[in-house]
Structures are given as structure tokens and as C-alpha cells.
Amino acid sequence: MSDTTEPAITLSAVGLSRSYGGKLAVDGVSLELRRGEIIGLLGPNGAGKTTTMRMITGTLAPSNGSVSICGIDLIDEPTAAKAKLGYLPEISPLYKDLRVDEYLRLAGRLHNVRRSAIAAAVERAKRRSGLSDKGRTLIGSLSKGYQQRVGIAQAIIHDPDVIVLDEPTVGLDPNQIREIRSLIRELGNDHSVILSTHILPEVEAVCDRVQILHNGKVVFADAISGLRQFRGGHSVQISLRWPPSIGEIETLVNPADVDKISDGVFRITPEKAEYDPTDALVRASVEHDWGLFQLAPAQASVEEVFVQLTQRDVADADADLPDALPGSEASTEETA
Questions:
Q1: Which of 287, 292, 311, 313 has the highest CB neighbour count under 10 A?
Q2: Which portions of the chain are predicted below pLDDT 50?
Q3: pTM flag (> 0.70)
């Protein structure tokens, strides 16, 4: 993985579309992944994430578009391209009546690992997945969290350049989720990772970039910081010991949206982005003894932006997205 002659872009998907029964499930999705990067593919259920994952991994042919892995076209040279790819689908492909070592040896053979190198590959995959002491354990007797580790181990057994993980923490308890997220971050040091999920904290915890799908289209593509700034760029958050009513604040900063976050804490978003209400809020707090103790720029949470982007019509998406947003493919054309 350290060879400087290897391409910086490990996966490139351009204009992927897929129709089912005349209806578009995925419409013109493009995605680019760089070496050592973790990208989160985010979207509500039915957004087209799994269909996109299946096209990227070569288990489903796109109706239109192309995919290349490390410069190898997935359609023209599927065997060579898939050799660079590791995949954990939403339902792990486990044989629960096999022991961990038996299953990983089988996975190594299926991934064309040389017979002489399989033992070392199994030990390496177990070590990286936290399974070093589970080799002789029946997979069916492992907890759900450890079964997910086995699924990840089979995806990395052949040391692929790109690892695709589809909903890897679904059904896990909080401790298991933290462990799997830590493992994904470690994998991101040496591999490129695509993480498909609808769990927002997961994206914040492990990803470098995020791409949001809605109705089969990309409605946002940027770094996590850019996602937070999308809605909260000109908002302020004010904390008051003796707060007035929301109506009083709205009268002071008019027109503006005033949201109560908690007791005495408000987010204020002027309708005019160029207007800064800071001075007016400080003066009013002193004059009316509101007990101001905090005033700072407010950033929308990832969850707020996600809801905003996915609960509106796709027809409105390109009107609100920044003009220079990299990778965005918002469209005014609605999909079924």
C-alpha cells in the first residue's frame, strides 16, 4: 500500500444509474475515493445506498455509468478490478457452522490468495480485526459484534486497496459499535474505505468526507466540516441566565428564525446572511438584564443538515447548495 507508483484515486464511479421496473433507484451518482480516505455514504432508508454499493462492488450491473478500481474498469476487467476490492454487505456472508480459521482460509482461497500465503493472510486479518484468540471458535457461537469482525476480516483477507462496508454496525450494542468504529478508523490508515450508513454519529466519528443520497441522487458531497457549515454558517447561539420570550428576540432580530435549544439557550438565524445580530443582542442583554454568559457562532449538527436535505424535494436542492460544492449532483428532476 505504500508504493508511490500506485494511483492516488483508488475508486472512481461516474454517472451510475440503475432502474427497476422502469423506476430509477439510483440516478447519476458519481463518487471518487482517494488512498487513505474514509468516505461516508449517507441517506435514509430507500435512498439508493445499497444499490449504489452493489454497483460499485460489481454485484449489480449499472443501467448507465462506469466504475474503475485503481484504474481498472470493473465492467471490462471484473476479475482484476475485484481483486483490489473488499466488501462486507449488510448481511455478512458467514458460514456459522465453520470455525473462524476455516472460514477465513476459505475466504482467502476465494480471493485468490496464494496457497503458500493463506496462513499468514489469515493471521494478519485476525490480528487487524481483533480475532487473534478466536481462530478455533465456531462463528455461530460468537456475539454479533465478533461476527461483524469476522465479516470485516474476510473483506481484508487479500489486503485490498478499497474496502466497502454496508451498514457494519446495525444491530450491535453501544460497546460493540465503538469497537467496530475504532477498527474502521484503523483500516482507513492503510486502505480506502467506503462506509454506507444511515447513522449520523457514525459518519462524524470515522469519516473524512460525506456524500448524502436522497431519492437516488447526490444532494450533498463535502467534508464533515462543510456539512455542518451548510446550514449554520451565519447563525449565532446565545445563552442567557434570565431569558426573554422567543417573541422578544424575534422582535429584536427581525426577520430571523429563533429556535430554543434548551432553557435559556437559543439559536438565531437571520434571514439575511450578511446581517450579524451580535451587537444588537449584547446591547439588549445589558439593557434588559438577560444575564448573557455565552454568545458564539452556531453550527448546525450533522443531523439537522441531514434532515433538511432529505426531507425536502430534490427539486429544491440545487437552489440551496453552494455553487462550487465539489461532487454535488443535485438536480431539479424528481425521481420515483
A1: 292
A2: 1-4, 313-315, 317-336
A3: yes
